[in-house]
């Protein structure tokens, strides 16, 4: 038996800290939620989890076919796309699923107590599992297109950590908004589409005219996706000047998202 | 969608030394206020426009008002009242689902909520997988669930079905598994909301026996029921809630009489 813990609603622990402690305590739940996501996503499909690897591959094929003439300056264009798509899909899918699981699965919050950030954190966990699986097609495509995997790939855990922090922060922020305004869920899909085209994902960074460079500089995902692409596709270590903006953006977003989410999370059970 | 409800900002009362350790549940002047916008504002744009014009009208109502009660270890405490009297809100306050707007709630130890059995079950997963998922929702580790696994399967009487996806279960099987997981270990506080109508009569007796053994081992039990005979037979004390306020508290017989004469 666990030691008898006392719950006192009058205790004045800051919400942000309290939620962090609870999430640690419920780490088994986070693991189970990730497991549930992975197990159920493709349960009824014939190819099962293989789709996690096949779908980015399919999208890459389509995009390569459509844009290869346009961007034929880009070396190993399919590898370039697939590499960027990995980071982008992780971000787009995890934030969307964090939001949806809170808005649609939030009924659970009205029935039993669980840390409210569980859905958001487990969405990131599932995203990481999918991302790791999609290394299989990536390495194949890189080998076929003559892009070697270099030792610089050792930097990827840091890139992923930063991307995951940003994704969790934004996921919690839009989850909070979507609880109050369900329209946000629809709006976000449009924003994502625009955001993807504003980020060098399917086109090389170099095609942006110098006078529009500020658009890139204002886009947090530009730094984060680039930090993912450099050690993998470009095969070089990122410079300090490329790392620090990403660090700032990632932890800043996480802090903002966590604070906003936890300050409102006591109200969620009244709303969702 | 449910009613759009907003809770009030939480005002916490001063901290003071915690009271009698024999009280597993302690409620002190607990009030819960819901705020319901008179019209639903669904979009951000609409919200901001109305906010600027000062047009977001809120109707507030108190789901609980100044409720003070305690449940001691080894006691079954009954709650009666018509629908909408605040019984479920009170259970949610004890289960930590809702934080009270005012007042203070103290709960000692682990709470097992039998509010909706099988909340969080996933239809595509098998019984076994759902046992671990549901256990984690209740705060248990995988290791703890492995220890309880055999006993859960046996109590649920599901046999071979435990390896089938839960969507193939009948509603009775579903509830049986939910009950078995939720009560797999001795809780300090058990919250029971009209769920004793699980499965057939034999299974219901098993459930009642398990709840009784929890009580004997010192669990505090909070029971909501619309069946007066159940309240009278099972509870040591009871309370009648009406429009969020306690109208009577004490001996079940007297509380039920008061409820029937003035309320029911």
Q: Please write the string of helix (H) and strand (E) elements of chain B.
A: EEHEEHEEHHHEHEHEEH
Mean pLDDT of chain A: 88
Beta-strand percentage of chain B? 25-35%
Strand content of chain A: under 5%
CATH superfamily of the domain at 6-110 and 225-263 in chain B: P-loop containing nucleotide triphosphate hydrolases
Q: What is the level-2 CATH architecture name of the domain at 6-110 and 225-263 in chain B? A: 3-Layer(aba) Sandwich
Distance between the termini of chain B: 30 Å
Can you tell me the number of structural domains of chain A? 1
The two chains with the largest interface, and their residue counts, are: A-B, 42 and 55 residues
Strand element count of chain B: 10
CATH class of the domain at 6-110 and 225-263 in chain B: Alpha Beta
Q: Which outline of chain B best applies?
A: globular
Oligomeric state of the chains in view: heterodimer
Describe this structure in words.
The complex is a heterodimer of chains A (272) and B (264). Chain A is globular, with a radius of gyration of 20 Å. Chain A has helices spanning 15-25, 27-41, 50-67, 77-105, 118-133, 135-144, 156-180, 183-198, 213-217, 220-234, 240-271; one strand at residues 6-8. Chain A is mainly alpha-helical and 272 residues long. Chain A has one domain. The model of chain A has no long low-confidence stretch (mean pLDDT 88). Chain A starts with 5 loop residues before the first strand and ends with a helix. Helix content of chain A is 71%, strand content 1%. By secondary structure, chain B is an alpha/beta fold. Chain B has a domain at 6-110 and 225-263: Rossmann fold, CATH 3.40.50. Chain B is 34% helix and 27% strand. Chain B has eight helices and ten strands. Chain B has helices at residues 44-53, 87-94, 127-137, 142-156, 171-182, 201-216, 228-234, 252-263, and strands spanning 6-7, 23-37, 58-72, 76-80, 102-108, 111-114, 189-193, 220-224, 237-242, 245-250. In chain B, the strands form two sheets. In chain B, strands 6-7-8-4-9-10 form a six-stranded mixed β-sheet, sandwiched between helices. In chain B, strands 1, 2, 3 and 5 form a four-stranded antiparallel β-sheet that branches. In chain B, helix 6 (201-216) links the parallel strand 7 (189-193) and strand 8 (220-224). The two termini of chain B are 30 Å apart. Residues 1-15 of chain B have low confidence and may be disordered. Strand 1 (6-8) of chain A pairs antiparallel with strand 5 of chain B.
